[in-house]
Amino acid sequence: MRKKFPKDISRRAFLGAAGASLAAVTLPEAAFAQSGGRKVLIIASNQDIPNLDPHIATGYSASFLLRNVYDSLVKIAGNPPKPVPGLAASWTSTADGKEYTFKLDPAAKFHNGKPVTAEDVIYSFKRAIRLNKGNAWMIQGVVGPDSVSAVDATTVKFALLKPFAAFLQVLPWIWIVSKADVEANLGTDDGQNWLRTNTAASGPFKVRRAEAGNLYEIERVADGWQKGGGNLSGAIWRIVRETASQRLMLQRGEAHIAVDLTSEDMDALKDKPGVVSIIEPEYRTFSIKMNTRHGPMADPELRKAISYAVNYKAILDAAGYADLMIGPLPNGILGHNPNLAVYRTDLAKAKEHLAKSKVPNGGIKLTFVHVSGLEQQRRWALILLDSLKALNIELDIKPMIWPDMVAACRSPETFPDMFPVYQTANYGDPDNIAFAAYHSSRNGNWQNAVYGNPEVDALIEKGRSESDEAKRIAIYREMQEKVVADAPDIFGVLEKRKLALRDAVQGFAFVPVASNAVECLGLSLK
Amino acid sequence: MLHFILRRLVLIVPVLFGLTALVFAIARLLPGDPVALAAGPNATPAEIAAYGKEFGLDRPLIVQYGAYLSGLMKGDFGVSIYTRRPVIEDLRAYLPATLELVFAAMFLAIAIGIPAGLAAAAWRDKWPDYLSRVVALGSISMPRFFLGLLLQLLFAMWLGWLPLGGRFPITEDPPALVTGFLTLDALIARDFTAFSIACQHLVMPAIAMSLSPLATIMRMMRASTLEVMQQDYVLTERALGLSSRLIMLKYVSRNAISATLTVIGLYFGWLLGGTVLVETIFDWPGLGLYATKAVVTQDFMPVIGVTLVIGTLFVFANFAVDLLYGVINPKVRTE
Fold first, then answer.
1. Please, which of A145, A202, B225, B306 could form a disulfide with B291 given CB 3.0 to 4.6 Å?
2. What pLDDT is recorded for position A126?
3. B145 touches chain A (CB under 8 A)
4. Cβ within 8 Å, pair B163-A31
């Protein structure tokens, strides 16, 4: 039996109530303007800063916070990047490159008001080496626990264990903490627990708010020792996961700088009023590692055949704003040879090398793993699949999660035939990528799981201990030729750094190292 | 009733214990090498081993589980191997944001879904019913993240009424932390501007989250109301000359709501575990994103911690629903 509902509940009343409740929740009010006369720079990034300990935290988000809050002996500036004075006002080094002496800026003082002394520098380096975490690898085997000594209260001497040409390039990433502050909060773990959320720093900014997963706010130290700089009263590192959201925030002026934009975002931002795009080459490589030790790829002829078969134009197109790599080192870095003879698409040569290999007619299946969800790596896999068809080689494409891929790097037997890798230079010296990606001591590690050539090892070691620039260039040129001859990688692209700024941001100068870890001291807001 | 409550509470203990064992085992038996990953690209095998040892990962699994359980008793959820932050601190930071979002979404779903379901049943095959059907079909088929993007486009980009994302304007200081729910904290601090601002940030993600429970609740309510309206006692009440308003609101709705309540309880747990897409789009600093990141990097302790917390909340949500049956239906109370 169906009943018609009588009209004593008025529909109009019902709908009216519904409408009113809807209106109540959408109050129009602009609530996102800058308050007061403060000049707060807002940076949108998708990376969190979960740990503030300067000798533990890594990643560009942590670098942002640390380089603004802490000081290091020298800083990095310019393009190409050069060391400039930080806590150290000046320095000298011996001709053999084994001894460096730094004269600290007499004005330098910590946020607690105490001056920065040689003791603090010694303490910081010892702590970094003792913990052996974070950026400590940069000075591992170079600075020992007894390498640093005080000449007087404001002069420190480093007696390096062995000469290290990139020494001044890595110093910006070893931060100086206040010995007194850390000692007072040592706990049972060398102050790790305390420094995770507190700072013992001397930099131009200090932490105002830290909300994990949401935002980190720094503010200019009122009576800081660094004079000058821009007009910023502070900066906020805002976690914005979606790059599309970062773009929208920038368009709306809710963020001043967005640091994780994709090529598509950059295209969308073109000609948008008030937005300045920065697309600059940076020392960040993306290539495909091949298993030089196990399986069919252990045959160098097959690797060369594949290197010639790859459609380089397609991989460049898929990479968006990028340049093709010329050999193993980033274009433009010291010692890079722009005229190096490298593999470019040439099917005739590919077939020639294939004929010389153990599988002259192809007919094999290779495994290509990639990080699941990383669209760019998947696109490359498809391009490779297509390129290898010409050699009658099949490609098995396997998306994996990153921890599983790292685990696969442990031995040549578990390492897949092909393995795409992004590599960011942490310091602007050829040693960084040469050592991490081609020295055999790094085997078992994802940056260089299997490749090793004693001659290349010797050149890399020679390169890092030579201090004469002309000689280093010659060494790295030879090293590049040898690596190309071995064809351990399909040398891919250098992705350009893609940043977008509001035009209100003044004083931004692009540095091709860690440019996404924005240094705020020199910046101003209109 | 007290006996009923106690019995249900006692039953929760083995459920949670089983949950810890299961989650711990699954998290630890997965392949992959999170320690090598966390130790960083430049760690040597010896450093990786030392790193694992620091977190006690070299001990037998059963010993690790024992240590975890004893820590849990003291409120210690372990430490993330990536960030080295205690998991409990992260949970404290992220859980309130997610709960606030889920509660707001459930509030919307219930506040609109139940009256709309009643209305659809009352005016069956009339335009309120058709409208509700279209809305239900639309909201259940619309992916949450897509709706989120559309809302952003309309209200934030075109109309400029609402902020694009986040919980609070980042250049302002939020109200003093009491509950972790910004809306409640603002009310506690008697800061009504802050309350209004917090609500504006909450509206869009809450709407995006609420649509599918809303549709389900609405349809469920309509179906059970129609069923109850066929009962003889409703006919009797009509014969006695009671007003339709009274019959619907007092007698029919109360009986019809029991079945809907079950759905609400289930949806609560479902929403808790399914916030990640909405959180990503609206930059809502909540548990979903935290959990997703932990899962992708196989960071054991956060994964276990989040699963436990969501599991516990789910168990208690269903417990609350069971209690509500008793409140609404006296027959359940006496049984």
1. B306
2. 95
3. no
4. yes
